[in-house]
Amino acid sequence: MQNPRRTVSNSQVKEPLARILLPKRGEPFDVRMLYLIEAEHNRERLRWSDRTSVTIPAGEEVSFETYFNAFPASYWRRWSQLRSVVLVLDVEGEANVSLYRSKEDGQRISVANHLVTTGHHEFEIPLKNFEDGGWLWFDVTAETETVIADAAWCAPHAPGEQILPDGTAIAPSAKKVAVGIPTFNRPSDAVAALQALGEDPVVDEIIEVVLMPDQGTQHPADEPGYAEAVEHFGERFREFRQGNLGGSGGYSRIMYEALENTDAPFILYMDDDIAIEPDSILRAVQVARFAAKPIIVGGQMLNLQERSQLRTTGERVDRKDFMWSAATHAVYDHDFAQYPLSTIGDEESRLDPKKYDSRALHRRVDVEYNGWWMCLFPRVVAETIGQPLPLFIKWDDTEYSLRAAQYGFPTVTWPGAAIWHMAWADKDDAIDWQAYFHLRNRLIVAALYHDGDPKGITKSIFKSTLKHTMCMEYSTMAIQLEAMQDFLAGPSHLFDILETSLPRIAAIRKNYSDAVILESADQLPAPTGAPGVPTSNIGGRLAKIKKIPWAIKGFKHLLSKEDPENALAPQLNLTPEEARWFTLSRLDSATVSTAGGTGVAFRKRDRELAKNLVQQTRELLTEIEGEFDSLRAQYRTALPKLTSLKAWKEVFDAQ
């Protein structure tokens, strides 16, 4: 690669695409690793008092090959109008600035080295080497004590026209965004989100309006700090009290208000229960402005409980069973504190399947959808394809991206634009009340976008039903029956049951002991024990050599009559990790802690109930297979109405 062109001082101001940021004060070491890496041989620590300037003592070194500060060059090459990027930085002192790029396999390539002195410096770097992957970054070695300030990856020119799928061009968009945060009974989280939006002046400047549908009974307006947060935004803040219409109702209200009552060129969705790096908002907006064509820009999810951990780099829908799946080359649960971007191993370590490194993080990942924990939509996309479906929660984000793709608007999950959110692996949403929406909405979205045989879907559902049977999750099975019946009822009632489904499902679950949460297992008699029943999966993934005999023993036990004595006291007290099918299928009773550790459910085996629920499931799945073509036609015909501004306006006006 040729050396970057360099200019010093008095140059034209470049638009920042991503600022080089320092960690907030007080952040622990693992979180700091998302921003900068100090050389192990440094004798003195780096110092910073704000987020945009850092003091590097003489002789010390720092690398910005980090999640938030390296530049995801392959994504910019693939999706943007840019053919180069400019690194801009102000320097006080004397230092060596070393520019690097990576290949798709993580291999580091030196781009250039520059000895810089006090002044303003710019380095323009071509993006031609990043077809399949790769990042850009820089390291600094201080010759004298050096201050690096106001550094950023910048565009060398203003954004140009964008080409729509039909070939027509639209003018460049202003750097403005409507930020929407629906909230439901998380008043302190909602206030914290508002405060985060206003804490960075650069980000605050591009926020045209903040839209907050409040769907709960515990209101942010009653929370300390709310008045000050709202006062900061003034007329830019708008709150909407409405009934609990779920995430799809909250986000649909945001899109409706942004389209009808603002001129914002971009609409950004964010959950209320998150922590955000504010610059991620600017980054998402700049990605959308400089994109060659309008795209949906998804933010990545960092784990709120393990804050140096990236949950996933991208997802798709597996067409075999129409279920969420990892996108090709995607990475899950990557911890940057243990494995920085530079950790790529060597030829010998790569031959060892037990060795892990960060090479996969350098490969570009192409996705089909992005979760709405953070997701940005160009106005033209919303105006073209319509509102979210009235699905309450689950699959609304997936459906929207699948619909957008049919219109020619792809979704891109963008590295370095991210929020912290509780990972879904730490929730019980596959077995609690949300299981109804998981299944019903999966079937609805499959009817809209799955053109193949539905047997792969029904087989997958029945397989999960058997696992629920083994785990004594009868309430889950019962509400999944409701999900299938509501899917079979067709699309005409979706708006009618938008507010009523949740209370109905909650009432059904009350009839099953596995849905009743006790504060602690100590409210029950001590466990009586279950000798010989495995309670852990030693060695990781369950091998077939164990799975087959354990399954045989489990089914044999399930066919036997349960012992009434075991309904009086649990045989075992299990953690969520221990509550696996090969354990629970050989018990008559057990307590299982919730994913959050806030209580336990006392599960009790009931052979006749399980048999009845399995039979009903089998019958409904057979009916779904027989009616799927007809249902596919019904849902596709109804889609324009279900996603229209007019239909949603009627819902909002009735609130």
Automatic annotation (TrEMBL):
Residue ranges annotated for the Galactofuranosyltransferase GlfT2 N-terminal domain, each copy included: 17-156
Keyword hit for Signal: no
Keyword annotations from UniProtKB, A to Z: Coiled coil, Glycosyltransferase, Transferase
Residue ranges that the Swiss-Prot or TrEMBL entry lists as coiled coil: 607-634
Residue ranges of the TM segments: none
Keyword ATP-binding applies: no
Pfam family for this entry, one: Glyco_tranf_2_3
Pathway of action: Cell wall biogenesis; cell wall polysaccharide biosynthesis
Galactofuranosyltransferase-2 C-terminal domain ranges (all copies): 458-653
GO molecular function, one term: glycosyltransferase activity
PANTHER family listed in its UniProt record: GALACTOFURANOSYLTRANSFERASE GLFT2, RHAMNOSYLTRANSFERASE WBBL
Family: Belongs to the glycosyltransferase 2 family.
The protein, known as: Glycosyl transferase
